[in-house]
Specification:
about 325 residues, Jelly Rolls, mainly beta, 6-stranded antiparallel β-sheet
Amino acid sequence: MLYPLRFKPIYQYRLWGGSKLRDILGKKDAPDMTGESWEISGVEDNQSVVKEGFLEGNDLQELIEVYMGDLVGDAVYEKHGTEFPLLIKLIDAHDVLSVQVHPDDALAAQRHHAYGKTEMWHVIQADPGSVIYTGFNREISREDFLTHVEQKKVQEVLNIESVKAGDAFFIPAGRVHATGAGILFAEIQQTSDITYRIFDWNRLEKNGRPRTLHTDLAIDAIDFKHYPSYRTDYPASTNRPSPIITCPYFAVNLIWFCRPVERDYVDIDSFIVFICIQGSFLLNYGEDNPMLVKTGHTILLPAIFKDVTLEPRGDTRVLEVYIDNRQPSTTI
């Protein structure tokens, strides 16, 4: 029988990585300069592998091939087959990330026969003065933007947002963005590893060479519109889910609780992902032995489980992620 699944983290070295995954989220085996922990991944050549239980050692694609809709939901399986539709990451930006953009589904399908990349960031911890760059600070033309790229002055036209723990930012495909230094955050995104790097603050790789830029590819992917707000505001309710974002690719709620919370997923034909970002809780899912979920743990709850109870041990915060199949979807 299926059970809530925890996977072995896939650690990714990054030039800008730090030690917060180890120090704050309890991932003691994370090497120095780990920038990303891929918590649940169906990306080719980076398939998540089950950490414990009788399915230990099986990868995510193998599980979907066997359990199909029981694992991911019938509607999700019908749309995506054996490809898991989300990539769940925990990211430690010790240094500023490159300015980048991701293509939408149409452009990614045309160029790469892949899905595009829409994502959402939820800030777990931020050093004083930390910022992110998202969108533009004014109306800008394609030509004006290219001029700033050529002059290495891209930062002059970027919108800058100060950040603190609990802030959320929805970043649709096409939005230019970068994470500033000193931020630990969860990233929920489409299963895609397509990134067009535009500017990297004139940094050098380990070999002493500048990082490769993809301006020619990026220019057709960028949304040049200026928007009045780039933050994702949401109600910070306690002891019940607070909706952060619902889009065609994922829905994300924050559960901030200090007493048991019952969750009914009978109307959700999807897997559920729990990302524990503070505290710990017991996941009661109908078996005699509930699962203990600690800070830094990410759990995949198979779609067959419709009634669960989250029992906190102190003040706890959890991101709840699933596919809202009432939203229109895109196929490639």
